[in-house]
Amino acid sequence: MRQRWREDGVLFFRDVIDRNAIARVRDEYLARLKDLGVVDASSSGPDWNGKDRVDGALARPIADDVWRSLVAEPSFDAVVSTFLGEAPTWVPIVVHRTAPPLSPGTSAETFGARHQDGIYNYGIDFVTCWVPLMDIGDEVGGLAVVPGSHKASLYPPDVFKDPNTRVGIPPDTIPDAAWRRPDYKAGDVLMFHSMTAHAGLPNRSNKLRLSMDIRFLPASAAPFVGRVVSADETRVLLRTERGEEMTFVIDERTIVRGPKGHPVTGRDREGILFCNAEIIVMPDERGHAVLIRSSSRKYVDLPAAWYETLPADWVR
Predict the structure, then answer these.
(1) CA–CA dist 295, 62 (Å, integer)
(2) Sign (positive/negative) of CA torsion 239, 245, 251, 255?
(3) Which of 17, 86, 224, 253 is the most buried (most CB within 10 A)?
(4) Buried b / exposed e across 18-46, counting CB within 10 Å, b at 16+?
(5) Angstrom distance (rounded) from CA 143 to CA 5
(6) Residue 123: is its pLDDT beyond 90?
(7) What single DSSP character describes residue 12?
(8) What does pTM read for this prediction?
(9) CA gap 29, 193 in Å, rounded
């Protein structure tokens, strides 16, 4: 397994998570989608009713207990712990994906939003688990990856030139034949390196595609997670999840990740380092922050353009 990981930067596991556990998470997603009105109350599955304008005030967050209970499933934990050779630490960078079908008469790239997570999370060498919460065949799409692409950056040198635009991997960088995807079943897990190129496939069905992204590291290499007590240009005081207060130095090498993944500077950092903001800090051995970023989104990941008004604590 480790040899395959070194060569490909991706592993696929069939039927790892108990289907009842998957069903409990799926039910949480469906309840939120029904609240928002994009799935009818009478529907037993994620059948899209065609509505694409929703009131953000109707959005309800998904509690951390939902994803934490999933990663605590014994069979899932056993696979991850065996892979690492030690207990994992799960990082609260979680995305509750609910990819809608293509609108009638529209087209989409075969491999949409091609990217490598590590470019936008420098300093946190996490592993991503993409977990389908339903059976996902060709029509529903799913996630595609490029084995072996984790060995180098596939981005142009000016990837962070425009802080208002999130740049993906240029379409002509990877030949279409290099992309791979299985037919996913509920209970499967796709595990990939932070630098493995991946992309979403078009959803040509009549269902919203439900999946979850969750990320882990070895406990020995985990970042610090907590809430901001105070911050200025030179340091941030963090109250960790264990209640400890820790100070991290911010210097010229610190990357503060902005909403679109780009580094932000000056006053723009106030949108990340405000009092009580939940953040993740990866320090070096001196206690200087290498990377600071917001923690996970807590809402189902419908397109932002669908919301008439975004929830007040929406984090992209």
Answers:
(1) 14
(2) negative
(3) 17
(4) beebbeebbebbbebbbbbebbeeeeeeb
(5) 18
(6) no
(7) E
(8) 0.93
(9) 26
